[in-house]
Amino acid sequence: MTLSKGAIGNLINRYRAVLKKCRMMNVFGSLAVAGLLVAGSAGSAGSAVAEDVYYYAGVTATEAASDAANWEDASGGTASGVIGKTEGTPTEYRFLPGTYDGSKTSAAAWVIGANGDIRIVSDGPITIQKWGQGMPPNQGVITARNGSITFGDDVTVRDNYSSGASTGGGGAIYSDRGITFGDNASLIHNMTAKPISGPYNGGGAIFLNATPDAQLVFGKNALLERNEANYGGAIYSLGSVSFGEGAIIRNNRAPSQGGALRVTGTLTLNPGSLVEGNKADG
User: Fold this and answer.
1) Any idea what the Cα angle at residue 122 is, between residues 116 and 125, rounded to 5°?
2) Spatial CA neighbour of 136 closest among 113, 181, 187, 102
3) pTM to 2 decimals?
4) I need a labelling partner for 67 at 20 to 30 A (CA). Which of 13, 22, 77, 208 fits?
5) Over 60: is that where the pLDDT of 2 sits?
């Protein structure tokens, strides 16, 4: 078979293209072997780093924040200094970023109980979880009598339980003055049960036991999910409640009234909020 000069030229060009492709594949292969070429989506570079976990191992009912000797890290080593009061500001508690877990305590313990204002600060996200899993405390995991509570950004409060026997509710948080959260607050699967006897209000996650002009304030992107109480599955507030943009309030439950929220003051929801799947049986 005789090829024309043009056909021969085309074959040569195709051969050169194949050689070039093979050289590029060899280069990529070499880079991959050398660990210089990383394949994957752009999102994989921003994967979250696991938080340090601190367990409270106390054996008596106490304010865990002031019981430094009974904190352990995930490996069982002593973890002193995870919480400390800020010098010059006795009502301010500084938390190292991480998860503060009460699941190892056999006591009816709480993190902070104060007869005045409480301010909680951290240089990074903090999670407060699994308090009251063994012997439930009779008050919120963070309780301020005669005081308000102020949180920073990126606070998660989840899987906590209180009998509410001494406060009338607030599975995780109780105040009789006011409560403020920064952005990205998450209140997930907190519970308080109706006591056998005595007064009861509710609030699976929060009970604000204050006058109508008191405020419970959330920043942007708050999440209230799967909390439960007899009244006000997530929140029972005798004051006003306001949410910033992007709030999600879903799948909370109350056997009596207020599947998600029971508010006697003013309730404010801002644009981008989602309320769905909440249930009140009463």
Assistant:
1) 120
2) 102
3) 0.81
4) 208
5) no
Quick one: average pLDDT of 220-233? 96
φ, ψ at 30 (rounded to 5°): -65, -40
Write down the pLDDT at residue 31. Answer: 28
Residue 12 parent element (H or E): helix 5-34
Q: Per-residue pLDDT tens for 31-56?
A: 232 322 233 323 333 334 457 999 99
Instruction: Quickly tell me which residue has 């070499």 as its tokens.
Output: 30
* Per-residue pLDDT at 80: 84
Contact 107, 63 (CB under 8 A): no
Distance between CA 29 and CA 45 in Å, rounded?
Answer: 22
Question: Are the C-beta atoms of residues 120 and 139 closer than 8 Å to each other?
Answer: no
**Per-residue pLDDT at 10:** 52
pLDDT > 90? residue 179 = yes
User: Given this model, what pLDDT does residue 68 score?
Assistant: 80
The residue extents of the domains of the chain are 5-45, 52-280
CA distance 95 to 81: 9
Measured distance CA(56)–CA(64) in Å, rounded: 7
Structural tokens at position 202:
């509710």
